Amino acid sequence: MANQLGVLNALDAAKTQWYHFTAIVIAGMGFFTDAYDLFSISLITKLLGRIYYFDALSEKPGTLPLRIAAAVNGVAFCGTLAGQLFFGWLGDKLGRKRVYGLTLMLMVICSIASGLSFGKSPDGVMATLCFFRFWLGFGIGGDYPLSATIMSEYANKKTRGAFIAAVFAMQGFGILTGGIIALIVSAAFDHAYKALPYNVDREHSTAPQADYIWRIILMFGAIPALLTYYWRMKMPETARYTALVARNAKQAAADMSKVLQVELNAEQEKVDKIGREQFGLFSKEFAKRHGLHLLGTTSTWFFLDIAFYSSNLFQKDIFSAIGWLPKAETMSATKEVYQIAKAQTLIALCGTVPGYWFTVAFIEHLGRFAIQLMGFFFMSVFMFALAIPYPYWKTHNTGFLIMYSLTFFFANFGPNATTFIVPAEIFPARLRSTCHGISAAAGKAGAIVGSLGFLYAAQSTNHDKVDKGYHTGIGVKNALIVLGAVNCLGMLFTLLVPETMGRSLEDITGENEEDNGYEQRFSVEKVPV
Q1: Using an 8 Å Cβ cutoff, are 89 and 281 in contact?
Q2: Is there a domain that residue 522 lies in?
Q3: Is residue 90 part of a domain?
Q4: How far apart are CA 250 and CA 307, in angstroms?
Q5: Inter-helix orientation angle 96-114/122-154, to 10°
Q6: In whole angstroms, what is the distance from residue 10 CA to residue 269 CA?
Q7: Per the UniProt record, which residue ranges are transmembrane (predicted)?
Q8: Does residue 527 lie within any of the structural domains?
Q9: Which residues of the chain register pLDDT less than 70?
Q10: DSSP code of 461?
Q11: Which of 260, 312, 479, 513 has the fewest CB atoms in 10 Å of its CB?
Q12: Can you spell out the DSSP letters for 60-75?
């Protein structure tokens, strides 16, 4: 294109090189840590209940009181939502690189601090855990818009979707590693400190040393993040930010000359010409050009995360409800952690991880729109297929687990990946990180609704089977029907999201075109169905 900067053309046309893989690993390890930290809490909530809310008179092991369970499960999401909005905005104001190291250090410090506690009282331990998990979430929140934007702005146009998907796919390995670490730690403690099942010896079913298990699991999340800190600090600022936002063509050309190992000319006069109309996020012009796109990215991410996070965080409750996990009272505390971790690791291995990498493999062939629509459709199908004949599945555990794994497979070979990718492509460079942060924050609002809603809703309709301190809910069957309906809404709002496959970022956003050309081109572009 006539107005396209040479440095951006070079990035768009670049063959896949070593720096692409370096960027994937550096950004991806942040996501590995994000997923590990966010989902590892589901491995230890039952253990926390046994340790800190033990009641010798109860026939069942201790469980977290309702308000504590809601706080422990939801507080990191509240922090993530705030972090996505704040760091998304900051990434556009100060630059992607300047903020990138800050989010990582926050994650490292708070991962370690999450495993520490002030005092021994249940309230003191839970308050400390929730405090540090909020700030852990805040750092994780910053990683979403920054990692997506950096990878999007570094990638070439032919493989951009696959590269962003590969960064996001590290989330699958984070979830899997969380399960594996929990398996190793719980097995080691179970071997070293034998404890009897709760229904045999209530008081000694939880070994005193079990208090270290949840701390080790949470603190391990700091290690992978810490290993990539140095490399994160060495990454240059993206050329698109330097040229199109900071308006420094010379620096953009110098940075990318080193990265691409080619000689690039600074074209300051072109930088001065393009993107002269700097409309803001709350302007009529933004609403006209990108309002429906932002509605599409926020709503689809919101609906996805209601289903995705509620299913992920409460796997253990679903497994217990269908009888795949032994009853809590028939196990010791360490054995229960082991069984929960084994179940979640199996689901991650069979459904979650493969789904992410199917997206990486097919996104540049099928496109974002088709994968997202297909994913929402099959998630709806499998949720309804689990819910409607629910009594049947109680006696056919294997079939239930296969279907349940398929919902995760199509979440990840579907909207869980594409909702992350598309907001990093369809908004102008000066608002890209902010709009991605807003879209991601809408997703985390969905995660909060899903995690807290499922906590209440999935309780049995039979009062005798409800956990201590909880009210009766609508049951797992009806909760799954609700999640299926939510996925149908996700399908509907996907129609607002444009296809971006194979096009340069500036072509998509119109940043290197005259205003009338932009409007005419974008208005006639149809979404493939």
Answers
A1: no
A2: no
A3: yes
A4: 47
A5: 150
A6: 18
A7: 21-44, 64-87, 99-118, 162-189, 212-231, 345-363, 369-388, 400-424, 436-458, 479-497
A8: no
A9: 1-3, 275-277, 313-318, 321, 458-461, 464-470, 512-529
A10: S
A11: 260
A12: S-----HHHHHHHHHH
CATH number at residue 392: 1.20.1250.20
Q: Which among 29, 143, 64, 50 has a CA at the least distance from the CA of 96?
A: 143
418 neighbors 169 (Cβ within 8 angstroms): no
Is residue 195 within 8 Å of residue 209, measured between CB atoms? no
CA distances from 395 to 330, 392, 465 (A): 20, 6, 18
Tokens 């505390």 belong to: 333
- The number of domains in the chain is 1
80/38 Cα distance (integer angstroms): 10
**Cβ-Cβ contacts under 8 Å for 382 (sequence gap 6 or more):** 403, 404, 406, 407, 410
Q: Look up residue 124 and give its two tokens.
A: 């003191």
* Angle formed at CA 26 by CA 373 and CA 409, multiple of 5 degrees: 30
Distance, in Å, from the CA atom of 314 to the CA atom of 325, rounded to the nearest integer, reads: 13
- Containing structural domain, residue 110: 6-269+282-510
**pLDDT tens for each residue of 6-39:** 888 888 888 888 888 988 998 898 889 989 998 8
**Can you tell me which residue has the tokens 């992920």?**
312
Q: Encoding tokens for residue 501?
A: 């496959």
Which residues lie closer than 8 Å to 391 by C-beta, 6 or more apart? none
Q: Is 434 a domain residue?
A: yes
Model confidence pTM above 0.70: yes
User: Cα-Cα-Cα-Cα dihedral of 325, 329, 330, 331, to 10°?
Assistant: 80
CA dist 498 and 45 (Å) reads: 40
